[in-house]
Amino acid sequence: METCPHASDNVFPAAPLTGSLMIVLDLSIIFTGQPEGARTLAFGPVALSEVRNAYRLSFGGRC
């Protein structure tokens, strides 16, 4: 069985790029839902900032 010598070269960049894409999509969902959450829970700007930072720290996003 013959294997392509360069087949594994494309796998390495895919992992970090996929991880970054997941973080960006995840945070965009959080930012989209924040106004509704603020109204529902009566959070002010400081509390929203804390919620965002806690989410980023818990689920691997960058602060």
Could you explain how this protein is built, in words?
There is one protein chain. Helix content is 71%, strand content 0%. It has a domain at 25-63. The chain is mainly alpha-helical and 63 residues long.
Q: Which structural class should the secondary elements be placed in?
A: mainly alpha
Give the H and E element order.
HH
Give the helix tally: 2
What Rg do the Cα atoms give? 18 Å
Quote the distance from N terminus to C terminus.
Answer: 47 Å
Quaternary structure of the protein: single chain
How much helicity do the residues have? over 70%
Average pLDDT confidence is 77
Give the beta-strand count. 0
Low-confidence stretches: none
Topology:
Layout (H helix, E strand, L loop, with lengths): L10 H31 L3 H14 L5
Q: Can you give me a brief rundown of this structure?
A:
The chain has 2 helices and no strands. With 63 residues, the protein is mainly alpha-helical.
